[in-house]
Protein backbone atom coordinates (compact mmCIF):
# COMPACT_ATOMS: atom_id res chain seq x y z
CA UNK A 1 0.00 0.00 0.00
CA UNK A 2 1.46 3.40 -0.96
CA UNK A 3 2.44 5.63 1.90
CA UNK A 4 0.03 8.40 0.85
CA UNK A 5 -2.90 5.99 0.95
CA UNK A 6 -1.93 4.70 4.40
CA UNK A 7 -1.73 8.22 5.79
CA UNK A 8 -5.09 9.15 4.28
CA UNK A 9 -6.79 6.30 6.13
CA UNK A 10 -4.93 6.75 9.46
CA UNK A 11 -7.65 6.92 12.17
CA UNK A 12 -5.47 9.28 14.24
CA UNK A 13 -5.76 12.00 11.61
CA UNK A 14 -8.65 14.45 11.96
CA UNK A 15 -11.52 14.01 9.55
CA UNK A 16 -12.12 16.81 6.99
CA UNK A 17 -15.33 17.79 8.81
CA UNK A 18 -13.65 17.95 12.23
CA UNK A 19 -10.71 19.90 10.89
CA UNK A 20 -12.98 22.34 9.06
CA UNK A 21 -14.99 22.95 12.23
CA UNK A 22 -11.86 24.20 13.96
CA UNK A 23 -10.95 26.64 11.22
CA UNK A 24 -11.75 30.36 11.43
CA UNK A 25 -14.11 31.88 8.90
CA UNK A 26 -11.32 33.50 6.89
CA UNK A 27 -9.55 30.17 6.46
CA UNK A 28 -12.82 28.52 5.42
CA UNK A 29 -13.43 31.17 2.76
CA UNK A 30 -9.88 30.68 1.50
CA UNK A 31 -10.42 26.93 1.37
CA UNK A 32 -13.67 27.40 -0.51
CA UNK A 33 -11.95 29.58 -3.08
CA UNK A 34 -9.16 27.06 -3.56
CA UNK A 35 -11.71 24.27 -4.00
CA UNK A 36 -13.26 25.93 -7.06
CA UNK A 37 -10.18 25.31 -9.24
CA UNK A 38 -9.48 29.06 -9.45
CA UNK A 39 -6.85 29.07 -12.22
CA UNK A 40 -8.86 27.27 -14.95
CA UNK A 41 -12.08 28.96 -13.78
CA UNK A 42 -10.54 32.42 -14.10
CA UNK A 43 -8.84 31.55 -17.40
CA UNK A 44 -12.04 30.32 -19.08
CA UNK A 45 -14.02 33.28 -17.73
CA UNK A 46 -11.50 35.82 -18.99
CA UNK A 47 -11.25 34.10 -22.38
CA UNK A 48 -15.04 34.20 -22.75
CA UNK A 49 -15.15 37.88 -21.81
CA UNK A 50 -12.38 38.69 -24.28
CA UNK A 51 -14.21 36.81 -27.01
CA UNK A 52 -17.38 38.74 -26.20
CA UNK A 53 -15.47 42.00 -26.56
CA UNK A 54 -13.97 40.78 -29.85
CA UNK A 55 -17.35 40.09 -31.42
CA UNK A 56 -18.77 43.45 -30.37
CA UNK A 57 -20.92 42.58 -27.36
CA UNK A 58 -19.82 45.82 -25.66
CA UNK A 59 -18.90 46.33 -22.02
CA UNK A 60 -22.26 45.28 -20.58
CA UNK A 61 -22.38 42.22 -22.81
CA UNK A 62 -18.84 41.19 -21.89
CA UNK A 63 -19.62 41.61 -18.19
CA UNK A 64 -22.77 39.51 -18.55
CA UNK A 65 -20.85 36.79 -20.39
CA UNK A 66 -18.17 36.84 -17.69
CA UNK A 67 -20.77 36.57 -14.93
CA UNK A 68 -22.56 33.64 -16.57
CA UNK A 69 -19.38 31.77 -17.46
CA UNK A 70 -17.83 32.56 -14.08
CA UNK A 71 -20.73 31.15 -12.08
CA UNK A 72 -20.83 28.12 -14.34
CA UNK A 73 -17.11 27.51 -13.84
CA UNK A 74 -17.44 27.91 -10.07
CA UNK A 75 -20.25 25.38 -9.94
CA UNK A 76 -18.26 22.87 -11.98
CA UNK A 77 -15.09 23.33 -9.92
CA UNK A 78 -16.84 22.90 -6.59
CA UNK A 79 -18.80 19.94 -7.90
CA UNK A 80 -15.56 18.32 -9.05
CA UNK A 81 -13.82 18.61 -5.69
CA UNK A 82 -16.90 17.47 -3.75
CA UNK A 83 -17.43 14.41 -5.96
CA UNK A 84 -13.71 13.54 -5.80
CA UNK A 85 -13.45 13.83 -2.00
CA UNK A 86 -13.54 10.08 -1.38
CA UNK A 87 -10.88 9.38 -4.01
CA UNK A 88 -8.73 12.28 -2.82
CA UNK A 89 -8.82 10.91 0.73
CA UNK A 90 -7.70 7.49 -0.47
CA UNK A 91 -4.75 8.92 -2.40
CA UNK A 92 -3.77 11.37 0.31
CA UNK A 93 -4.27 14.56 -1.68
CA UNK A 94 -3.39 16.96 1.16
CA UNK A 95 -3.25 19.80 -1.38
CA UNK A 96 -7.03 19.59 -1.68
CA UNK A 97 -8.93 21.93 0.67
CA UNK A 98 -11.59 19.33 1.44
CA UNK A 99 -9.02 16.69 2.30
CA UNK A 100 -7.00 18.88 4.66
CA UNK A 101 -10.17 20.19 6.30
CA UNK A 102 -9.89 23.77 5.10
CA UNK A 103 -13.60 23.80 4.23
CA UNK A 104 -16.64 21.69 5.07
CA UNK A 105 -18.03 19.30 2.42
CA UNK A 106 -21.50 20.73 3.04
CA UNK A 107 -20.24 24.24 2.28
CA UNK A 108 -18.77 23.10 -1.03
CA UNK A 109 -22.00 21.33 -1.96
CA UNK A 110 -24.09 24.39 -1.12
CA UNK A 111 -21.72 26.67 -3.02
CA UNK A 112 -21.81 24.46 -6.12
CA UNK A 113 -25.60 24.40 -6.18
CA UNK A 114 -25.87 28.14 -5.50
CA UNK A 115 -23.47 28.98 -8.32
CA UNK A 116 -25.40 26.66 -10.64
CA UNK A 117 -28.69 28.36 -9.78
CA UNK A 118 -27.18 31.80 -10.40
CA UNK A 119 -25.75 30.60 -13.71
CA UNK A 120 -29.21 29.88 -15.15
CA UNK A 121 -30.69 33.42 -15.15
CA UNK A 122 -27.32 34.99 -15.98
CA UNK A 123 -27.00 32.74 -19.03
CA UNK A 124 -30.56 33.36 -20.22
CA UNK A 125 -30.24 37.13 -19.72
CA UNK A 126 -28.26 37.37 -22.96
CA UNK A 127 -30.93 35.55 -24.99
CA UNK A 128 -32.82 32.28 -24.83
CA UNK A 129 -30.90 30.44 -27.55
CA UNK A 130 -27.47 31.57 -26.40
CA UNK A 131 -28.35 30.91 -22.77
CA UNK A 132 -29.47 27.38 -23.59
CA UNK A 133 -26.21 26.79 -25.46
CA UNK A 134 -24.20 27.82 -22.42
CA UNK A 135 -26.33 25.81 -20.00
CA UNK A 136 -25.87 22.75 -22.20
CA UNK A 137 -22.12 23.26 -21.88
CA UNK A 138 -22.38 23.57 -18.10
CA UNK A 139 -24.55 20.44 -17.99
CA UNK A 140 -21.90 18.58 -19.98
CA UNK A 141 -19.25 19.65 -17.46
CA UNK A 142 -21.40 18.44 -14.54
CA UNK A 143 -21.98 15.16 -16.37
CA UNK A 144 -18.22 14.79 -16.62
CA UNK A 145 -17.78 15.35 -12.88
CA UNK A 146 -20.60 13.02 -11.89
CA UNK A 147 -20.11 10.13 -14.32
CA UNK A 148 -18.40 10.57 -17.68
CA UNK A 149 -14.87 11.13 -16.36
CA UNK A 150 -14.63 7.35 -15.88
CA UNK A 151 -15.71 6.43 -19.41
CA UNK A 152 -14.11 6.26 -22.84
CA UNK A 153 -16.00 9.43 -23.82
CA UNK A 154 -14.44 11.51 -21.03
CA UNK A 155 -13.21 13.96 -23.67
CA UNK A 156 -16.71 14.66 -25.01
CA UNK A 157 -17.96 16.98 -22.22
CA UNK A 158 -14.87 19.16 -22.63
CA UNK A 159 -15.36 19.33 -26.39
CA UNK A 160 -19.05 20.21 -25.98
CA UNK A 161 -18.54 22.79 -23.23
CA UNK A 162 -15.76 24.61 -25.05
CA UNK A 163 -17.37 24.18 -28.47
CA UNK A 164 -20.63 25.77 -27.31
CA UNK A 165 -18.91 28.76 -25.72
CA UNK A 166 -18.54 30.76 -28.98
CA UNK A 167 -22.25 30.14 -29.70
CA UNK A 168 -23.17 31.55 -26.29
CA UNK A 169 -21.17 34.68 -27.13
CA UNK A 170 -22.30 35.29 -30.73
CA UNK A 171 -25.96 34.37 -30.22
CA UNK A 172 -26.21 37.38 -27.93
CA UNK A 173 -25.52 39.72 -30.86
CA UNK A 174 -28.33 41.41 -32.82
CA UNK A 175 -29.87 38.83 -35.11
CA UNK A 176 -28.48 35.99 -32.97
CA UNK A 177 -25.89 34.74 -35.51
CA UNK A 178 -24.22 31.39 -35.02
CA UNK A 179 -20.43 31.44 -34.87
CA UNK A 180 -18.47 30.39 -37.97
CA UNK A 181 -17.61 26.70 -38.20
CA UNK A 182 -13.90 27.27 -37.75
CA UNK A 183 -14.40 29.05 -34.45
CA UNK A 184 -16.60 26.27 -33.08
CA UNK A 185 -14.13 23.63 -34.30
CA UNK A 186 -11.19 25.50 -32.78
CA UNK A 187 -12.95 25.79 -29.41
CA UNK A 188 -14.04 22.14 -29.35
CA UNK A 189 -10.55 20.89 -30.25
CA UNK A 190 -9.04 23.15 -27.61
CA UNK A 191 -11.45 21.78 -25.00
CA UNK A 192 -10.63 18.17 -25.83
CA UNK A 193 -6.93 19.00 -25.72
CA UNK A 194 -7.38 20.68 -22.33
CA UNK A 195 -8.95 17.47 -21.01
CA UNK A 196 -5.91 15.39 -21.90
CA UNK A 197 -3.52 18.00 -20.50
CA UNK A 198 -5.51 18.38 -17.27
CA UNK A 199 -5.65 14.63 -16.59
CA UNK A 200 -1.94 13.90 -17.13
CA UNK A 201 -0.62 14.76 -13.63
CA UNK A 202 -3.23 12.60 -11.86
CA UNK A 203 -3.36 9.50 -14.07
CA UNK A 204 -1.77 7.14 -11.54
CA UNK A 205 -3.96 8.31 -8.63
CA UNK A 206 -7.05 8.18 -10.83
CA UNK A 207 -6.35 4.61 -11.91
CA UNK A 208 -5.79 3.60 -8.27
CA UNK A 209 -9.27 4.83 -7.39
CA UNK A 210 -11.17 3.42 -10.36
CA UNK A 211 -11.19 6.40 -12.74
CA UNK A 212 -10.60 5.23 -16.31
CA UNK A 213 -11.31 7.95 -18.83
CA UNK A 214 -9.85 7.85 -22.31
CA UNK A 215 -6.46 9.31 -21.29
CA UNK A 216 -6.12 6.64 -18.60
CA UNK A 217 -6.87 3.90 -21.11
CA UNK A 218 -4.28 4.98 -23.66
CA UNK A 219 -1.55 5.98 -21.19
CA UNK A 220 0.24 9.17 -20.21
CA UNK A 221 2.69 9.32 -23.10
CA UNK A 222 0.09 8.77 -25.82
CA UNK A 223 -2.28 11.16 -24.05
CA UNK A 224 0.37 13.88 -24.09
CA UNK A 225 0.76 13.45 -27.84
CA UNK A 226 -2.98 13.31 -28.51
CA UNK A 227 -3.63 16.35 -26.35
CA UNK A 228 -0.89 18.28 -28.11
CA UNK A 229 -2.24 17.38 -31.54
CA UNK A 230 -5.73 18.50 -30.53
CA UNK A 231 -4.40 21.88 -29.37
CA UNK A 232 -2.41 22.17 -32.58
CA UNK A 233 -5.54 21.36 -34.58
CA UNK A 234 -7.37 24.10 -32.69
CA UNK A 235 -4.73 26.67 -33.60
CA UNK A 236 -4.71 25.49 -37.23
CA UNK A 237 -8.51 25.85 -37.50
CA UNK A 238 -8.32 29.33 -36.04
CA UNK A 239 -5.52 30.43 -38.35
CA UNK A 240 -6.63 28.80 -41.60
CA UNK A 241 -10.42 28.89 -41.11
CA UNK A 242 -11.24 32.57 -41.65
CA UNK A 243 -11.38 33.73 -45.27
CA UNK A 244 -8.45 35.67 -46.67
CA UNK A 245 -4.70 35.44 -46.44
CA UNK A 246 -3.14 34.07 -43.24
CA UNK A 247 -1.35 36.98 -41.51
CA UNK A 248 2.17 36.76 -40.11
CA UNK A 249 0.98 36.59 -36.52
CA UNK A 250 -1.20 33.61 -37.48
CA UNK A 251 1.87 31.69 -38.58
CA UNK A 252 3.58 32.86 -35.41
CA UNK A 253 0.76 31.39 -33.33
CA UNK A 254 1.14 28.06 -35.11
CA UNK A 255 4.89 28.07 -34.51
CA UNK A 256 4.45 28.78 -30.81
CA UNK A 257 1.79 26.08 -30.55
CA UNK A 258 4.05 23.52 -32.22
CA UNK A 259 6.83 24.40 -29.77
CA UNK A 260 4.45 24.02 -26.82
CA UNK A 261 3.18 20.68 -28.14
CA UNK A 262 6.71 19.34 -28.55
CA UNK A 263 7.66 20.53 -25.07
CA UNK A 264 4.66 18.78 -23.55
CA UNK A 265 5.18 15.56 -25.53
CA UNK A 266 8.90 15.27 -24.78
CA UNK A 267 8.93 16.22 -21.10
CA UNK A 268 9.00 13.44 -18.47
CA UNK A 269 5.66 12.36 -17.03
CA UNK A 270 4.82 13.72 -13.58
CA UNK A 271 2.45 15.84 -11.53
CA UNK A 272 3.31 19.10 -13.26
CA UNK A 273 0.40 21.30 -14.35
CA UNK A 274 2.57 22.82 -17.08
CA UNK A 275 0.77 21.02 -19.96
CA UNK A 276 -2.63 22.34 -18.82
CA UNK A 277 -1.31 25.86 -18.18
CA UNK A 278 0.38 25.80 -21.60
CA UNK A 279 -2.96 24.84 -23.15
CA UNK A 280 -4.63 27.79 -21.43
CA UNK A 281 -1.80 30.04 -22.65
CA UNK A 282 -2.42 28.88 -26.22
CA UNK A 283 -6.12 29.60 -25.69
CA UNK A 284 -5.20 33.11 -24.60
CA UNK A 285 -3.08 33.56 -27.70
CA UNK A 286 -6.02 32.30 -29.78
CA UNK A 287 -8.28 35.00 -28.34
CA UNK A 288 -5.65 37.67 -28.94
CA UNK A 289 -5.50 36.51 -32.57
CA UNK A 290 -9.29 36.77 -32.79
CA UNK A 291 -9.25 40.29 -31.42
CA UNK A 292 -6.45 41.37 -33.75
CA UNK A 293 -7.86 39.74 -36.83
CA UNK A 294 -11.26 41.15 -36.14
CA UNK A 295 -13.12 40.51 -39.37
CA UNK A 296 -16.53 39.54 -38.23
CA UNK A 297 -16.37 36.59 -35.92
CA UNK A 298 -20.13 36.23 -36.05
CA UNK A 299 -19.81 34.56 -39.43
CA UNK A 300 -20.64 37.45 -41.76
CA UNK A 301 -17.12 37.80 -43.18
Protein topology:
Layout: H1 3-8, H2 16-21, H3 25-34, H4 38-54, H5 58-83, H6 85-90, H7 97-100, H8 105-124, H9 128-146, H10 155-170, H11 181-199, H12 203-208, H13 214-218, H14 220-240, H15 248-266, H16 274-293
Helix pairs in contact: 4-5, 4-16, 5-8, 5-9, 8-9, 9-10, 10-11, 11-14, 11-16, 14-15, 14-16, 15-16
Structure commentary:
This protein is 73% helix and 0% strand. The protein is mainly α and 301 residues long. Helix 4 packs parallel to helix 16 (274-293) and helix 10 runs antiparallel to helix 11. It starts with a helix and ends in an 8-residue tail after the last helix.
Which terms summarize this structure?
single chain; 301 residues; mainly alpha; 73% helix; globular
Give the SSE string: HHHHHHHHHHHHHHHH
Largest sheet: none
Amino-to-carboxy terminus distance: 60 Å
* Fraction of residues in β-strands: under 5%
Q: Which class of secondary structure composition applies to the elements? A: mainly alpha
Number of strands: 0
Overall mean pLDDT stands at 82
- Gyration radius (Cα, Å) is 20 Å
Number of helices: 16
Low-confidence stretches: 1-13
Shape: globular
Helix content: over 70%
Quick description:
The protein has helices at residues 3-8, 16-21, 25-34, 38-54, 58-83, 85-90, 97-100, 105-124, 128-146, 155-170, 181-199, 203-208, 214-218, 220-240, 248-266, 274-293. It is an all-alpha fold. The relative contact order is 0.11.
Amino acid sequence: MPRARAEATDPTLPTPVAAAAARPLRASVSGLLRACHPVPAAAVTLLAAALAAAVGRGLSGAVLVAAAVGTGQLSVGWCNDRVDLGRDLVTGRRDKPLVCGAVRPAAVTASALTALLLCVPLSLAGGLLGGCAHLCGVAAAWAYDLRLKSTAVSWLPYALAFGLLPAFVTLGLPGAPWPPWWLTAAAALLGAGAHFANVLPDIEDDLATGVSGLPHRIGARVSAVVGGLLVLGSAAALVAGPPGRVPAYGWGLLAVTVAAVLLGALRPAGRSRIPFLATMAVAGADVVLLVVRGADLAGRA
